[in-house]
Write a structure and sequence with these properties.
By secondary structure, the chain is an all-alpha fold. The chain contains eight helices and two strands, in the order H-H-H-H-H-H-H-E-H-E. The radius of gyration is 18 Å and the shape is globular.
Amino acid sequence: MGFSFHWLFSWCSKRSAKPSSDNEDDPWPEPRPHGHQLYPPPPPQKILANGAEYIHQLRYRKYWPPENTPDTPLFCLYRLYEFLVIDDVTGYRNTIEYFCKQRTWAVHDIPDPQDDDPARYAFLACLPALLKAAFNERIKIGLVRDVPAIMSPEQAEAYRTAPESSKTYEEEPEWVKHVKPFEQTLYMESHDGVVMNGFDDPRASDYFKRMNILIWGPHIHFT
């Protein structure tokens, strides 16, 4: 598929701070000249149809949030979406860890993106559950989100043996309960192009089934 910078600037000029639908005539986005995050990114179907080009775009992105904008939980959620759609394991694991380190970003407080692309909105609605599971597994063993990066053995033991009543677990935001599943099953490819046949495949992610998205169970846990 051929690209031109006329397409790029035309595509970027249509984007605003609020997510909007991509119609079928929208050109495919090339990497932006300054390497900033595109907001919103394309729907999952478009990313999958141009997977190699999109991977190239992400790898050459120099900055995380959109230009002249501070980072936010919602921008980070969209980046996590991008990496999961292309099954970039290193990318999505690094993004989950990055979110975890932002101690003021409670999962429950992630704002509703109100994304008007049905497939993208359904995909986004699955992501707080991933973050909740990843962070709560750490909290359970004493690795709370504000745990120091460097600790003495005594400090580590104190966190590990902290009473359950002292731990604050993450919760999903309310808005995810009101997002509708995607009408047609969305089949996601693995990084090597493999697609599962159905939801009965044991490798399918339970976090995405409720939104009718068939995707490989992501590796979300870290220490």
